[in-house]
């Protein structure tokens, strides 16, 4: 009987490479929130169904207790770590993408202007093409990007960016203006001009907040539909009046189609601002890190921690997932990403919700206590398990026999002599 059973199970065609069973799927693009199994084949999502038999896949992984979401897209990171400049956002402060992405549930990173039009191709060959993480890029309107704040004050060239964006359209998803210190709009407006030439969105880090160029004019006049204001919870961004009511210019900007991105960073997040916005239902369109060595070791920590911090201020879990998956994919015009649709790349995150008392802070000494904390436990990139905190893909080692872990045909166990 046993032999018969083995034979028949070998004869069953296996439809899938892998199936994740027993999780709660939250997939905002498909308006799905509930108990579903997710099957993967050839690196793509092959099925999402209430129940998928483990026998239909070469491997089944029990993900009971986890929230299964699309692999997260971090819309604002700094990963040009090969630039080699002391103390620069491009250089020492940038992070090697694979060293941080998968362990935090992130499968796609969008570098936000660390490289400019003069050094983007170096960034491509030394980082983008070598990383396992899917690294996409916003090209800085300033030639040398973020090798120093000084290099971001001039050397703007929309035509050069248009040429690069065409040549590298598989990875270039937008343009960045950042850290501008002068009282005019040149950096922003030329980035928008590059955005018009390329049909790509522009992300603005507003730099110095100066009376000659108030923030409300950025989002109600200078940015276009689809452009992004990052560092939305920076201290000088006005959210609420003295009565706690949301300033109308924010809704006007949102109606125009301007996107608001968190970009937590080192000092670019103030709990007061985030609380005022969320309390009034003005949720972030996208939740991003502004990842660099300072933010990851500071109050930002990682994307699941930032989502949890916003949840502690009242952001619903489903909104946090949306803002880290489907909306960033739409913002960068990559609707194939940030979704668990059948046929999409099998980029998947498994998040645990921990319950208890958790402190969150904001690098500006503010603190808030939350009751939940998200934690990345499992990550798949194009169907491959790239992070498995709980070893869920493994089996009990005692069932694997005496030779597992030895390369067949290469290594041999040579027992030492009984006496030496
Ligand atoms: Zn940044």
Number of strands: 15
Tally of alpha and pi helices:
11
Q: Kindly report the average pLDDT value.
A: 95
CATH class category of the domain at 72-339 = Alpha Beta
Helix content: 10-25%
- Which residues form runs of ≥5 with pLDDT under 50? 1-9
The main sheet comes to:
8 strands, mixed
> Looking at CATH, which topology of the domain at 72-339 would you report?
TIM Barrel
Q: What is the element layout, followed by pairings?
A:
Layout: H1 2-11, E1 16-27, E2 32-41, E3 44-49, E4 57-62, E5 67-70, E6 72-77, E7 106-116, H2 120-128, E8 134-140, H3 158-167, E9 172-177, H4 186-198, E10 202-204, H5 215-222, E11 228-229, H6 248-256, E12 259-260, H7 271-279, H8 293-296, H9 303-312, H10 317-324, H11 326-331, E13 348-361, E14 367-381, E15 384-388
Parallel strand pairs: 1-4, 1-5, 6-7, 7-8, 8-9, 9-10, 10-11, 11-12
Antiparallel strand pairs: 1-2, 2-3, 5-13, 13-14, 14-15
Zinc ion binds at residues 76, 78, 112, 205, 265, 290.
Question: How would you characterize the overall build of this protein?
Answer:
With 420 residues, the chain is α/β, with parallel strands linked by helices. The chain has a domain at 72-339: Metal-dependent hydrolases (TIM Barrel, Alpha-Beta Barrel). 23% of the residues lie in helices and 26% in strands. The chain is built from 11 helices and 15 strands. It has helices at 2-11, 120-128, 158-167, 186-198, 215-222, 248-256, 271-279, 293-296, 303-312, 317-324, 326-331; strands at 16-27, 32-41, 44-49, 57-62, 67-70, 72-77, 106-116, 134-140, 172-177, 202-204, 228-229, 259-260, 348-361, 367-381, 384-388. Strands 1, 2, 3, 4, 5, 13, 14 and 15 form an 8-stranded mixed beta sheet that branches. The chain has a 7-stranded parallel beta sheet with strand order 6-7-8-9-10-11-12. Helix 6 links the parallel strand 11 (228-229) and strand 12. Helix 5 packs parallel to helix 6 and helix 9 (303-312) packs antiparallel against helix 10 (317-324). The chain is globular. Mean pLDDT is 95; it is low at 1-9. Residues 76, 78, 112, 205, 265, 290 line the site of zinc ion.
């Amino acid at each position: 009987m046993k032999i018969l059973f083995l034979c028949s199970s070998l004869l069953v065609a296996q439809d899938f490479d892998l199936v994740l069973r027993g999780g709660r799927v939250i997939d905002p693009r498909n308006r799905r929130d509930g108990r579903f199994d997710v099957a993967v084949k050839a690196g793509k999502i092959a099925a999402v169904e209430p129940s998928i038999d483990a026998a239909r896949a070469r491997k089944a992984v029990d993900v009971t207790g986890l929230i299964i979401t699309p692999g997260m897209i971090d819309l604002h990171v700094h990963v040009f770590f090969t630039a080699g400049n002391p103390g620069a956002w491009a250089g020492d402060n940038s992070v090697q993408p694979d060293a941080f992405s998968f362990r935090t549930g992130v499968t796609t990173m969008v570098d936000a202007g660390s490289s400019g039009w003069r050094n983007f191709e170096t960034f491509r060959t030394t980082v983008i093409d070598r990383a396992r993480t899917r690294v996409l890029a916003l090209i800085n309107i300033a030639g040398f990007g973020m090798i120093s704040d000084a290099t971001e004050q001039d050397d703007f060239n929309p035509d050069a960016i248009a040429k690069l964006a065409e040549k590298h359209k598989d990875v270039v998803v937008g343009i960045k203006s950042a850290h501008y210190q002068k009282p005019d709009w040149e950096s922003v407006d030329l980035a928008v001009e590059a955005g018009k030439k390329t049909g790509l969105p522009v992300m603005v880090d507003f730099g110095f907040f100066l009376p000659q160029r108030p923030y409300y004019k950025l989002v109600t006049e200078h940015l276009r539909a689809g452009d992004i204001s990052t560092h939305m919870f920076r201290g000088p961004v006005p959210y609420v009046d003295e009565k706690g009511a949301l300033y109308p210019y924010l809704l006007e900007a949102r109606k125009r189609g301007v996107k608001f991105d968190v970009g937590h960073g080192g000092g670019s997040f103030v709990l007061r601002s985030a609380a005022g916005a969320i309390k009034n239902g003005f949720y972030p369109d996208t939740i991003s890190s502004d990842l660099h060595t300072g933010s990851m070791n500071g109050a930002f920590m990682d994307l699941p921690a930032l989502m949890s911090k916003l949840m502690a201020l009242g952001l619903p879990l489903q909104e946090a997932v949306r803002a880290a998956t489907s909306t960033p994919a739409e913002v960068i015009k990559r609707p194939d990403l940030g979704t668990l649709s059948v046929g999409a790349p099998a980029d998947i995150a498994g998040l645990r919700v921990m319950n208890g008392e958790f402190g969150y802070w904001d690098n500006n000494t503010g603190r808030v206590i939350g009751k939940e904390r998200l934690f990345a436990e499992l990550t798949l990139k194009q169907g491959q398990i790239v992070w498995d905190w709980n070893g869920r893909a493994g089996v009990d080692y005692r069932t694997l026999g005496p030779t597992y872990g030895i390369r067949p045909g290469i290594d041999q166990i040579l027992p030492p002599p009984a006496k030496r």
